[in-house]
Amino acid sequence: MALKVLYALDTARTQWYHFKAIIIAGMGLFSDAYDLFCLPPILRLLGRIYYQKSHLPTDNFDNNDNNFVIHRHVDSTLLGVAFLGTAIGQLVFGRLGDRIGRRRMYGLSLMVMILSALGCGFSICTSPSCVLVSLGFFRFLLGVGIGGDYPLSATIMSEFANKRTRGSFIAAVFSMQGFGILASSIVTMVVCGIFHGASHPKPKEKTPIEADLAWRLILMLGAIPAAMTYYWRMMMPETARYTALVELNVQQAAKDMEKVLDVSLSQIAEDESLTLPQDPSSYPLFSKQFLRLHGRDLFGCSASWFLVDIVFYSSNLFQSQVYGKYLGKKYKSNVYEDAINVALFQAILAICSTIPGYWLTVYFIDRIGRRKIQMMGFLVMALVYFAIGIPYTSYWQDNINGGFMVLYGLTFLFANFGPNTTTFIVPAELFPARFRSTCHGISGAAGKVGAIIGAVGFGSASHGQTEDHKAVKILLVILGGVCLLGLAVTYFFTPETKGRSLEENEE
Fold first, then answer.
1. What is the pLDDT of residues 325-361, one digit of tens each?
2. Where are the domains of the chain?
3. What pLDDT, on a 0 to 100 scale, did the predictor assign at position 70?
4. Confidence at 58, pLDDT banded by 50, 70, 90
5. Among 44, 128, 198, 364, which is disulfide-ready with 50 (CB 3.0 to 4.6 Å)?
6. How high is the pLDDT of residue 201?
7. Model confidence band, residue 68 (pLDDT cutoffs 50, 70, 90)
8. CA distances from 150 to 25, 305, 377 (A)
9. Alpha-carbon gap, residue 313 to 467, rounded angstroms
């Protein structure tokens, strides 16, 4: 049955409310990226404050020092607990979004993010291990809130958008991550610059006690963008598709859409005598009928997201090695300059490759299609990893130059102009309304399992007590192979969703 309100959503011209929804939904992804990507420079501060004690490492610093090894384990652990929380949040909030409603859970996930970001800054104890356990706990809760935002933001945007520009709208929501990465870098540089100007530490002096306040402030500032959009999230109506197709209240769906779209109620209201049949997808989740109709799609979405996150987060961890070798400032500057240099390097990558990748997807996704962009991204990433990995020990390990940086930047460009963005979009378009948020959460949780493998596995292997160039080479080649596997999964299991309504994609 073609409902008038759903037809109006699919054919509506682009209006101010669409852009407002992008900003409101995207601010959660902005906060997500800020909270996750402010961690690398903060780990520099934590390493200097809690593991180098009274003196800073010098050029002759022994990598076999136990403090250095503990720092690397802390690095992987703090990333891992955040990703574990994200996976749990995606599963829990995704399911609740289908059972209770998108709007009701939307504000709750954002509130968890706000309180957890503030909690990270209040990780106050008397010993380094106690501080980091407390920080890890709040990072886990922060991950739960971030995870909840993924399926809700994607589903809400897909259900508000028209079918002609739906891909661009969802991609624009996801692209806010790029600006979150850039914002985290800028805030880190500004905060560390202020503290540096106030204390003027020298490279071989004891780390200033004020540095312990700097990292807390950086983390707590991440609560501001989330808090700014909390009111507007609570003012958003429930999506018409959820109200009409899950709650079976077509009249209320029409009233809600009249408030936000430039359309009169008489155009979209159904006859009062209309009685909707029970939802045709009355089978339960993971039943035989669900698996027969949607199991292939769910596997394709989950496997693609799992594979791309292995690669994407491994690349982010490899960034510390690139930073040290290319800029030559690893362990040479004082505590604030060290964090500023890492943040600056992240900002340059964001401006030159990450943000352009997101917006290339925004422009092309409704022209080229999701499937082609995802396949292209996996293919180019595979070729770049092979170009870096195969000659790594014979050429790149001692010659990280401008050519290497271009190749390294291409991995981020084509991750975002490719599977990192499309895996966020496709699950929000394929499944029935009463399973849409749940299936997006399952796909995203599979991705975060891949992120844990990339963060913990690659981090442990490539940052051991001594740097093993051969191991790094093998890992880079493996990442290229993972990209080829992602290409195969996309080719065989990912359908094209461009240009069709959500109900047509469901069928």
1. 655 544 456 788 888 988 998 899 999 999 999 999 9
2. 16-271+284-502
3. 44
4. very low
5. 128
6. 61
7. very low
8. 9, 13, 21
9. 19
Q: Which CATH number is 16-271+284-502's, of 3.40.50.80, 3.40.50.10490, 1.20.1250.20, 2.40.110.10?
A: 1.20.1250.20
* Contact (CB, 8 A) for 493 and 371: no
pLDDT at residue 468 is higher than 70: no
Q: Which of 56, 16, 324, 9 is nearest to 202 (CA)?
A: 56
Neighbours of 151 (CB within 10 A): 35
Sequence-distant contacts of 14-23: CB under 8 A, at least 24 apart = 14/162, 14/165, 15/261, 15/262, 17/160, 17/260, 17/261, 18/160, 18/161, 18/162, 18/165, 18/169, 20/232, 21/156, 21/157, 21/160, 21/169, 21/236, 22/157, 22/169, 22/172, 22/173, 23/229
AA letter at 387: A
Q: How far apart are CA 430 and CA 414, in angstroms?
A: 23
Q: Kindly state the tokens that stand for 156.
A: 């809400």
Instruction: State the alpha helices, DSSP H only, in 100-249.
Output: 102-121, 128-160, 166-199, 211-221, 223-228, 230-235, 240-241
pLDDT at 166: 94
For the segment 165-199, what is each residue's pLDDT rounded down to a tens digit?
A: 999 999 999 999 999 999 999 999 999 999 987 76
Q: Which two tokens stand for residue 37?
A: 């990507």
